[in-house]
Amino acid sequence: MYLPKIYQKFSEKWPDVFKRFKQFGIACRDAGLIDPKVQDLIKLGIAIGANSKGAVMSHTRKALATGSTPEEITHAVLLGMTTKGFPNTMAAMSWVESVIERHDPEE
After folding, report:
1. Considering the chain, what is the average pLDDT of its residues?
2. Using one digit for the tens of pLDDT, what is the confidence trace for 23-53?
3. Which has fewest Cβ within 10 Å: 64, 65, 69, 107?
4. All residues at 6 or more sequence positions from 4 whose CB lies less than 8 Å from its CB, including other chains
5. 10-21 in b/e burial notation, b at 16+ Cβ within 10 A?
């Protein structure tokens, strides 16, 4: 899976912080009953709500990796329109589409 350069640099510069952050994320995921595919769609929705390009793109990749279809992912983006508004939804849609366009289903 693609990892942004800043993510790689951070993990190299502060390996202990990075390791603990990843462990915290795993603990949060394991704390409940929601399956990974739905977790990734929820996390995508949170990223859209935060208007975070990097997080939207990352969670789009994760959602694809856990079995979400491009149609399910774009529906998740569309659901945010009544909360975030048209301009923010268009921004999120463009970030999602850029990831989907580069996605290789064979990976």
Report:
1. 94
2. 999 999 999 999 999 999 999 999 999 999 9
3. 107
4. 54, 58
5. eeeeeeeeeeee
Contact by Cβ (8 Å): 70, 100: yes
Q: Give the C-alpha separation, 100 to 95, whole Å.
A: 9
Q: Which residues are within 8 A (CB) of 13 and not within 5 positions of it... i.e. 6 or more apart?
A: none
Domain locations along the chain:
1-32, 35-107
Could you please state the CATH topology (level 3) that the domain comprising 35-107 is classified under.
AhpD-like (1.20.1290)
| Distances, alpha carbon 94 to alpha carbons 27, 31, 73, in Å | 31, 32, 12
Task: Please tell me the pTM assigned to this model.
Answer: 0.88
Q: Give 21-26 contacts, CB < 8 A, sequence gap 24+.
A: none
What sign does the CA torsion over 32, 33, 38, 40 have? positive
Using alpha carbons, list the distances in angstroms from residue 63 to 1, 16, 27, 87, 96.
12, 27, 19, 23, 11
pLDDT tops 90 at residue 99: yes
